[in-house]
Amino acid sequence: MKLAVFDFDSTLMDGETLEFLARETGIEKEVKEITGKAMRGEIDFFESLQKRVSLLKGLKVETVNRICTSLPVMKGAAEAIGGLKQAGYKVVCFSGGFTNATVPFKEKLGLNAEFANTLHSKDGLLTGELGGEMMFGDSKGRMLKKLQELLGIPPENTLVTGDGANDLSMFKYAAKRCAFCAKPVLKEQANIIIEEKNLALLLNKI
Q: Strands of 2-7's sheet, edge to edge?
């Protein structure tokens, strides 16, 4: 058995979930600035996530779900996942974002599993708080190690793909490390680099 783990925002999905949500509240510029700093590794991921989610306080859950179910799929994502599954990989998504988005994508793309955070809500409105397994800079690496131990899959049979600093923690547990249209901090540690926004290109490099 082999394992392929994909980041969600700007990897399986073409864009940043928080920025799509921020457009509804007129705070897209603020959110975009914080996201950029976090993905470049300039500020702590947990801190940046809390700041961005707090700005969404008061947004209707039904609005969040409507936006999240219509997020754009990255070009080549379906082909990449289909090809990897044919090659014997279990394909999983790790997201520092939210289950509102990753669950619909799991069904849409045929992922084997997804791990993400949960937006807290009360009376149908976001409270500006969240919880989950993917809130910290090293969360993805820790979860990958747990999955490898559970499934009996070694680093030699593991492929990880992402674009930002919070994907870096996965790299030490994977022999195949893909930086997809990524920030320099990730490309420095990758042994597969894809600069074109087409995930299907990954199939030619593994």
A: 125-132, 113-122, 89-98, 2-7, 158-162, 176-180, 192-194
